[in-house]
Amino acid sequence: MLILTRSAGEKIRIGADIEVQVVAVKGGQIRIGILAPLDVRVVRSELVDPTEKKPPRPVYLPDGQTPKRDLRRRLG
Fold first, then answer.
1. How far apart, in Å, do the first and last CA atoms of the chain sit?
2. How far is C-alpha 70 from the geometric centre of its chain's CA atoms?
3. Cα separations in angstroms, 33 against 9, 57, 58, 65
4. pLDDT for 75
């Protein structure tokens, strides 16, 4: 396991397509934002069924574009 120290607003990259940002730090909680391609499943570990093995659904876009989903919520 790689352990990194980041402050609010700082980001890390995983490969070329995944970005994780520390959005806020409040007390004992850290809010993170994740930007990833649609074919990358992002889910909290407590929600994962260890027996589930579903393949990602295919996404087809023109000209080789890669769809991304922005899982960051705006703080207001």
1. 33
2. 8
3. 10, 22, 24, 22
4. 46
Instruction: Find the mean pLDDT for residues 26-54.
Output: 83
**In this predicted structure, what is the pLDDT of residue 43?**
83
Supply 7's token pair. Answer: 């402050």
Min mean pLDDT across 19-23, 29-33, 43-47 is at: 43-47
Band (pLDDT 50/70/90 cuts) for residue 68 is low
Q: Measured at the alpha carbon of residue 50, what is the angle toward residues 48 and 53, in degrees to the nearest 5?
A: 90
Biggest distance spanned by C-alpha atoms of the chain: 45
Say if residue 21 is exposed, middle or buried (CB neighbours under 10 Å; 0-12, 13-18, 19+). Answer: middle
